[in-house]
């Protein structure tokens, strides 16, 4: 087959799949730019028909929706830098990909080697929900610490684990604020509460609906902390994310605000993107650690 007919075949296949004339989507003369445009057009067409063209399971449909959320895939854009904690080992990275691509990792029904109580499922839902060693708390603290680090680096006054002296309605001492951001909203200090959830931890993928798990987590936190913060002259900010990297609206707003502060200090509009990359990477690093610590040693 000559090069000429190979090219023609490729063009025909492209035009057929994308249902578009190739010359209408790119006028760029430079090869890298043209390839980027064509790839975007091609994968856009594939993605559009993914659910109707392929027989996806409810879990795959749900995950597809989760990872399409703003910044949910930013961890893939992160530059590996050890000093910033932006590195994970190959088992962690592979297990994160398995979790997102619905590739089974665990033997269904085996006992969790971490808590020794609950049963594992093959997808890793228990692994990312388990509260035992290298559990939810571990992931929570990773994200809390990275937020503190980011705030400090961009010049935002912040205190980690700030004791507020608040008490709940039934007289119990409430936990310190994960982050206390000084002079953050309308001249008030704000208590930021970090929450990570796994969307399938309850009834599994069948009862899943877009963003519901995140919303429920935020509502629960607001109910517990918002009014007590307001009564004491503080603002309350829930910072909720999911194991697939979605952010709740308040978390996105907070990151956008930090980003704009970062840009205002650097004169480079692109400098703020690293904030989303760092937090996104940190979430996946935590998820990877949770999965790996429960993986059979002969897997991957
Ligand atoms: Zn467990």
Describe the overall structure:
The structure is a single chain. With 300 residues, this protein is of the alpha+beta class. Among the domains are: 3-48, no CATH class; 134-280, 3-Layer(aba) Sandwich (Trna Endonuclease, Chain: A, domain 1). Helices cover 48% and strands 11% of the residues. It has eleven helices and four strands; from the N terminus they run H-H-H-H-H-H-H-H-E-E-E-H-E-H-H. It has helices at 3-18, 22-25, 31-48, 50-53, 58-67, 90-100, 125-129, 136-153, 212-231, 249-266, 273-292, and strands at 158-162, 177-185, 188-197, 235-242. Strands 1-2-3-4 form a four-stranded mixed beta sheet. Strand 2 (177-185) and strand 3 form a beta hairpin. Helix 6 (90-100) packs across helix 11 (273-292) and helix 8 runs antiparallel to helix 11. The longest helix has 20 residues, at 212-231. The radius of gyration is 22 Å and the shape is globular. The mean pLDDT is 88. Bound molecules: zinc ion. Residues 112, 114-115, 118, 126, 130, 132 line the site of zinc ion.
